[in-house]
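Report of the visiting student (M.T.), summer placement. My assignment was to run the structure pipeline on a short list of targets and document each run. The first record concerns Probable chorismate pyruvate-lyase.
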Amino acid sequence: MTQLPSTFRSQIERSGSEPGNPAPATASSPNADAADIVDPGWVSLASGGIEVPAGWHAWLASRDSLTERLIEAAGAGHFRVRLLAEAKGLPWPDEAHVLGLASDEQAWLREVALCVDEEPWVVARSVAPIVERHDAPFEGLGETSLGSWLFRQPDLERSAIQIGRNTRPIHGYAGLWQRRSVFRHSGWVLLVQESFMPAMGRALSLSASATG
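After the run finished, the structure tokens were exported:
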């Protein structure tokens, strides 16, 4: 039997629901209370409303596969995807809003860490509305990158990229920069949020200063 991620398991245990039929719960980081009070304050990256260092801007503005970019940047380092959590749960209010979901409507949730030599460089959270009689768009991916599949789809559409004035922890990981965009493919709508970790900045010598 597959073990549920601890992020979701504690909520299910409190409700008494079976793993095969998870109760409505807000799937989030282990420090959910801290994450709950953080409003990312999303703004369009293109608007220039937030001053971003040049090195980081190149990463935040990229519209191709982040996985491929990370593998290339890692060089001889070992890249892998670490699955942190995957289940049904309640999205954060700003996630529900951008997806057109009611405040009490569940969605598919997936959280992963994109690691180089076991150090998280990016921690990502994907949210997809539940479609009746269909599995989640990331069902069965496990520790395979979502992007490695998504960017091969010929009908893929992507919204404008937004970045956060504040970074909200994903599964307990707080990043230096955070972005999000909405993908559409074959009737699916998928919100993907990515937090860029301090370890990535250190490894790639990305300046924290807007003038760097």
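The beta strands are 42-44, 79-89, 107-116, 119-129, 157-158, 162-164, 177-185, 188-196. Residues 35 and 77 are 31 Å apart (CA to CA). I thank the supervising group for their guidance throughout the placement.
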